[in-house]
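Consider the tokenized backbone below.
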């Protein structure tokens, strides 16, 4: 019996965000493979389908928060300002889906629950929550880096009689907050955006802050036709620079250490970046050592602290808002965050000083009393990187499960593959680049589709990384991470935000340019290929 004929699809793709959509385009439209794709949302968009909370905005600038692969698309698509709102990104991804006819491959409202590698056939068996199982030679997962929501298990959460929402599960119809008493738990990138956006319309806003944040202005401004034309004329150079840079945010990373210049020069450079806007620009475009040298880090942090003291009028609120630790998380930027606390209808509760005891039917009880609320918003982030993977029962060779393999923290060779899990390609899997993400997503999807093409053309049945290659890559990620201060700052980047999650190195912090170089230089060296009945290294 010819097993080849039994397979349902050449490839299954999971996810309809930037990653999954591009994977479907490459595999289906370019390679001509049969593809079945799934997303548990009812349409495309991924992050931008789910995160409909008020104020949701990209913190990558508009001109590079998009695909680079299609020149006509780059030329035709327009935007209003130098940052994109959630509806604008959703519209863009919807357009991409239409333009390349991607929806035809998708089954929406469908969650993949189990995938098992069959060693007899070399096919993946993919099972969904609709009870269907299909087989495929390849599986490409674009499950999202920041997608599995984290809702802290506060006592009494289910007793709350008002409305409660996680920001990444915001109702499509919106929520009427006018005249309501609203609480926001969490002051990460999301919390900051939602706080600024809703403060003017709610009756009262109570912000529950655990760790104070360093944030700089985003610098949002309209972009006129002439500016767009200028950008569009230079896209070739722009993408070349972005893809060879480190954080891929469109500016040149500084090569000047802060510790090599005078205090006055530091201030001048920080002030300039503050006025220009952008969190990554402030952290990486000002000086070269902010993420690595404690002294430089403190200079950047101190500049922000001074700004907080100048902006926030009430000294007690300013004190609570002022961070004291390292400036070593994904750098925030905002549209008037600290200013919002000067409003009469906004109050700040430090839950470090006054911890949340429980959620009550009426609101949130902290050690200093009960805060009565009509709506409670969880801006408490995500179980990042592996959160959606561990929800799926993924079984590779010898019945090994991904959950077991990742028990001490998730790993991935080049951020895309795992030993014992042949032909399973992850987009933004563990140990991938930490950057403005669309160019990293494109880099990985292109590598994946080139690899699949190579396999199809050469009759290769399976590919998987050698154990030692995978270990070496993880060591490289660890070594680079040890050189940065990020490993000492507690955040989702290392899994520190999820109670009980093992702290581990989940990213390659060497930058996109170096990552692309590594992909080129390594080629297929670290992989084992199998043809039917034979192993070829
Ligand atoms: P996602 O867009 O997250 O898509 C994954 C999809 O897979 C989701 O729809 C999910 O529901 C689906 N899925 C997961 N598991 C399953 C399953 N088992 N079965 C079926 N479907 C499944 N990045 C930047 O570079 N710049 C920014 O400015 C920026 N801003 C952000 C703002 C917010 C509020 C958030 C949350 C993230 C932001 N990010 C930003 C990161 C953003 O997630 C990425 O830029 C990008 O959108 C990720 O695309 P993706 O396709 O990899 O994943
Ligand atoms: P983040 O950055 O993980 O922020 C989550 C926030 O929620 C942060 O302030 C947390 O405080 C707070 N949090 C989490 N759990 C609790 C509990 N149990 N009690 C009180 N406060 C809590 O998520 P975001 O959605 O803002 O941003 C994630 C990324 O998405 C961001 O980098 C962008 O790329 C988009 P903590 O700081 O942990 O003390």
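A designed sequence for it:
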């Amino acid at each position: 019996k010819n097993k080849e004929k039994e397979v349902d699809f050449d490839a299954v793709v999971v996810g309809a965000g930037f990653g999954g959509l591009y994977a479907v385009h490459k595999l289906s439209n370019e390679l001509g493979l049969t593809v079945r794709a799934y997303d548990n949302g009812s349409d495309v968009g991924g992050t931008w389908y789910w995160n409909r909370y008020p104020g949701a905005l990209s913190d990558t600038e508009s001109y590079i928060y998009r695909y680079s692969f299609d020149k006509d698309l780059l030329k035709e698509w327009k935007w209003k300002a130098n940052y994109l709102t959630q509806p604008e990104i959703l519209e863009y991804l919807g357009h991409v889906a239409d333009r390349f006819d991607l929806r035809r491959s998708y089954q929406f409202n469908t969650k993949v629950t189990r995938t098992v590698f069959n060693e007899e056939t070399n096919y993946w068996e993919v099972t969904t929550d609709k009870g269907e199982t299909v087989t495929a030679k390849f599986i490409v997962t674009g499950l999202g880096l920041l997608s599995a929501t984290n809702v802290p298990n506060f006592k009494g959460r289910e007793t709350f009689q008002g409305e409660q929402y996680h920001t990444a599960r915001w109702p499509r119809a919106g929520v009427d907050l006018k005249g309501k008493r609203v609480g926001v738990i969490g002051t990460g990138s999301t919390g900051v955006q939602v706080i600024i956006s809703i403060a003017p319309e709610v009756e009262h806003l109570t912000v529950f802050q655990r760790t104070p944040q360093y944030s700089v202005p985003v610098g949002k401004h309209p972009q006129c036709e002439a500016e767009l034309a200028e950008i569009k004329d230079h896209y070739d150079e722009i993408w070349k620079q972005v893809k060879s840079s480190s954080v891929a945010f469109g500016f040149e990373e500084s090569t000047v250490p802060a510790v090599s210049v005078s205090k006055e020069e530091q201030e001048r450079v920080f002030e300039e970046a503050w006025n220009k806007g952008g969190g990554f620009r402030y952290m990486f475009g000002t000086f070269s050592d902010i993420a690595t040298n404690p002294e430089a880090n403190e200079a950047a942090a101190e500049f922000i602290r001074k700004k907080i003291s100048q902006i926030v009028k009430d000294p007690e609120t300013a004190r609570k808002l002022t961070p004291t630790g390292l400036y070593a998380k994904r750098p925030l930027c905002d549209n008037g965050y600290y200013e919002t606390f000067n409003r009469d209808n906004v109050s700040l509760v430090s839950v470090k000083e006054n911890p949340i005891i429980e959620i009550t039917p009426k609101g949130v009880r902290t050690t200093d009393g009960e805060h009565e609320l009509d709506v409670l918003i969880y801006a408490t982030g995500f179980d990042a990187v592996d959160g959606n993977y561990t929800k799926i029962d993924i079984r590779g060779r010898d019945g090994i499960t991904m959950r077991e393999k990742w028990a001490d923290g998730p790993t991935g060779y080049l951020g895309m593959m795992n030993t014992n899990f042949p032909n399973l390609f992850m987009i933004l899997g563990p140990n991938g680049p930490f950057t403005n993400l669309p160019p990293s997503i494109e880099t990985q999807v292109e590598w994946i589709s080139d690899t699949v093409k190579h396999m199809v053309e050469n009759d290769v049945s399976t590919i998987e990384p050698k154990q030692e290659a995978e270990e070496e890559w993880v060591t490289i990620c660890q070594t680079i991470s040890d050189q940065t201060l990020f490993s000492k700052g507690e955040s989702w980047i290392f899994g520190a935000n999820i109670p009980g999650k093992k702290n581990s190195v989940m990213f390659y912090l060497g930058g996109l340019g170096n990552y692309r170089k590594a992909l080129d230089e390594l080629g297929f060296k670290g992989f084992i290929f199998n043809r039917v009945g034979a192993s070829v290294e």
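Residues 146, 152, 185-191, 210-211, 330, 351, 379-382, 492, 497 surround NA7 (ligand 2) (CB under 6 Å).
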